[in-house]
Amino acid sequence: MEGNRLKGSPFCVRSANLSSAKLAGSAPTSVNTTAKLILVLLLWSVSGWLLLGTGALAHMAQHVRHTLTEKRRRFSAERSIGQYLASHAVRKLQIGAGTNHLPGWLNTDIEPDKDEVYLDASGPYPIPSESIDYIFAEQLIEHLGFEQGLEMLKEWRRILRGHGTIRIATPNLLTLVGLFRDESAEAKRYAQQDIAFNNLSLLPTAPSAVLNMQMHRFGHQFLYDPETLSRALTSVGFRSIRTTPVGRSDDPALDGIDSHGKVVGEELNRYVTMVYEASK
Ligand SMILES: C[S@@+](CC[C@H](N)C(=O)[O-])C[C@H]1O[C@@H](n2cnc3c(N)ncnc32)[C@H](O)[C@@H]1O
Q1: Do 143 and 222 contact (CB within 8 A), yes or no?
Q2: 186, 176 contact by CB (below 8 A)
Q3: pLDDT of amino acid 55
Q4: Helix crossing, 206-216 with 185-197: angle to 10°?
Q5: With a 6 A CB cut-off, is 109 part of the ligand 1 pocket?
């Protein structure tokens, strides 16, 4: 009823006009929409390529800058090393020196400060064979993986003169593991001091906190026990392998040069550190 009434009414005529207008305009609208879609897609892909292009260019520029900086750093290191070798009859090379600037030594580090020379301990070294009398690395070898450490020791043997000596100070893994059994007051003091010095959580047991820290923090890669270090030294051809107390050596050139105690505390350093010397 209602529908029939409306049919003859002006509402019905209007709605009929509206729908015919919609029908008449439907083809051009869909063409417009398709064109717009294509345009958007085109713009999107062009801007994508542009972005990719500028990204690749920026990446290339960064790579070139990095390579140039590396080359400059190596060149300047080679010059400093050459100057040191030319001006010293007895040549003493410290690797991973940190803040320990030893007078008369060629003090090097992978992150050198202004008084040090750039040298990556893992090698190869821009240093002639059989040209160095002493090599010293305190708290460094544990920052390299085991294989890298072997490569480093091979380089040391190559550059060392026949009568030369090397000195390595590094945390003793056996001492660290021993904390689980060591009931001595010294062991307890060491663990407490190390926990306080490094802000370790008090939740794990002291030996567990200290051992895990030594394994995973500071960029440590491989910790040595005495037997493993001796085998590594022997395997690359070092002889006369011997231990010395921290800070002490029978060789005057190596006596009193250890400095890590100044950083972490003398007692802490003495407890955990083992020192090895060796010759060719
Ligand atoms: C724990 S600090 C020891 C610093 C100093 N020898 C001492 O005993 O106080 C380790 C040092 O080794 C350096 N180092 C780490 N990896 C190295 C690498 N591959 N070659 C040379 N130095 C490196 C670090 O930059 C840092 O100065």
Answers
A1: no
A2: no
A3: 79
A4: 50
A5: yes
